[in-house]
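Run log, item B.
One chain of 195 residues. Sequence copied directly from the ordering sheet:
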Amino acid sequence: MADMPEPQLTTPHDEITLDAAALRVLAHPTRLALLNRLRQQGPSTARQLARHFALDSGAASYHLRRLAAGGLIEEDAERGNRRERWWRALHRASQHDPGERGGPEGRAYAQAVALAAAETLRRAAAQTVPGMSDEWFAVSAFTDVTVQVTPDELGALKSELYAVIARYRDKEPAPGAATALVQFQAFPADRAVEP
């Protein structure tokens, strides 16, 4: 297999704009989940990740090697030894603009994102929500909202929401801050929008 090209970084936020090769690597929901876990929780081993996601260790190792070949993670040599390989994410976030890079790779990636988001919500329903403190539960949001918009208006809404999220993501954490997951999907609710 040929080496995949190094994805291009967009600084200063340590984000990566996904190219076609990276989109192909991330078009698998398990790989996307592994990458997100490394980004949120820090370096980990294949065995630890396999246990967290109820995977076979061999399958977790395979997916981690694919992520590394795509330039999305790397081996954490400072932590590893001959028996255990530790992996870490290379970027804090991924950016994909379907308007710029649609095609089969972009659509496959979007499907993987939707499946990974659904799995995250399933885990939240089973594990997070029941044990969440009243303080955090009171400020959480679990809702669907529908709006009547044109494609241009949906694009503007998406840009505005990204700007709000970026404002909170890029600030210094306040005392008592915890990591909060913000899931955001915006898409037509029915098939009536096909050309």
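Observations after the first pass:
- The radius of gyration is 18 Å.
- Residues 27 and 100 are 17 Å apart (CA to CA).
Flagged for discussion on Thursday.
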